[in-house]
Write a structure and sequence with these properties.
Two copies of one chain form a homodimer. The first copy, chain A, is an alpha/beta fold and 245 residues long. Chain A is built from seven helices and twelve strands. Chain A is 33% helix and 28% strand. In chain A, helix 3 crosses helix 4.
């Protein structure tokens, strides 16, 4: 676990890259090999007493524009944030992957899928807590950010609140999502895009229904998968700022 | 159309009762007889440049506690509001009706149903506009408040924004709701209670899906029909205040 020598400043925000060394592990009979997981940590100039983990979407990476946008919005509320590349994504992607959606499932699976996700994010939160102390922690992640975030939220009791959505119990870890949804016990704001091409909104609302927590709210809006309205993006940051304690 | 001699003050709020004389009319081959429709108008002390119509729920009436609560919250934003008794409800109810839910459908139908609703609310808005001038106008009404509000919003182009919900395309005017939903073209915030005993949330989300407007948003929460969370009640007033222009 180590910081890279590359601190950068964006306005009042400090951005630092790091690498996690995650040991090989066996989960449900499958061995996930040892791996290096690159991450990024954003902290506001005045320090932060709260932290949000940011899960990027499929075919993107830890530093995609909308993730940086959320990091900046959170920093403006005095909240630090952290992102890592998901399985098979970003700096972990096969050099030959062009980001074509039809290869997404391969990238996810070859990168270790849910089992890798759980170990990687636990390592990331352990690392930052060792560096900066334990703080009230939340999750923000849609689509593949929910494929990662729902399992993490269900199994890591340090997560107190989560913005999830754009996902149903389908895709490469659909069964994991359906199995773990009842274990989610923290506050959840769940976003649904009503007119998504490749998943009917009924699949997303079914996953919301399955969440075990009584402290959940669903926001649905018309439009395509990537067309989450700006008022919901802003609203999701308001939600974390208001309830993350 | 006339004011009753009964002005009342609640803090900064003035409350006035009125009666509408609505003439008999024939709609789709059915004659709705002439009737007197009692109403109530709330205005903030400093006057109001915006107006919201408040539709009460089934088995209640124009002055039920939660309607007065919304009127007070709106007045605090400088917004006037108005409510009338729905078909067969409040002062229009049969003296023998105890408010038992199983007689709700009879009361609604005997009071003229959707045809009466459309004429009654048009008369109410005409009356207030004649008295206080035309202003940007919205709707707030859940459950039977949507059985009234969806048809009104779909057919009266003076309504620019509506808070609707707790209703699907079922009940005594279900076919009217399904037929008119695609005609709704204004902003809509649609509330759904996820665990309602007598209507599955899928019926409510289907009615949301059918709304013609692209400017619609859905908020879903766990709990029973009457257990809309207070943050949604407050949020619905914020929504009207923010977007009613």
């Amino acid at each position: 676990m180590s910081w890279r020598n590359s601190e950068m400043t964006r306005g009042d925000l400090t951005e630092r890259l790091f690498d996690l060394d995650v040991a090989a592990h066996e989960t449900n009979g499958t061995t996930v090999p040892a791996r290096r997981v690159p991450g990024i940590y954003w902290s506001p100039a005045g320090g932060a007493e709260r932290l949000v983990l940011l899960g990027h979407g499929g075919t993107t990476h830890k530093k995609i524009d909308y993730i940086v946008d959320i990091a900046e919005r959170l920093a403006a509320r005095g909240i630090a944030s952290l992102a890592i590349d998901g399985p098979g994504h970003g700096e972990r992607a096969d050099a030959e992957w062009t980001g074509a959606p039809e290869e997404f499932e391969c990238a996810w699976r070859d990168g270790g899928g849910t089992a890798a996700v759980l170990a990687d994010w636990r390592a990331a939160l352990d690392f930052i807590e060792a560096e900066a102390g334990a703080r009230p922690t939340g999750w923000w992640g849609l689509s593949m950010g929910t494929m990662m975030g729902l399992p993490v939220t269900a199994t890591d009791e340090r997560i107190r609140i989560a913005v999830l959505g754009l996902m149903g119990g389908w895709g490469p870890n659909g069964p994991d999502l359906e199995r773990l949804a009842p274990e989610v016990s923290c506050l959840v704001c769940f976003l649904v895009q009503w007119d998504v091409e490749f998943v009917h909104h009924a699949a997303s609302t079914a996953l919301y229904t399955a969440l075990g927590t009584p402290r959940k709210t669903l926001h649905g809006n018309p439009g395509a998968h990537a067309a989450v309205p700006q008022f919901e993006v802003g609203g999701s940051v308001d939600y974390l700022d208001r309830y993350l304690r």
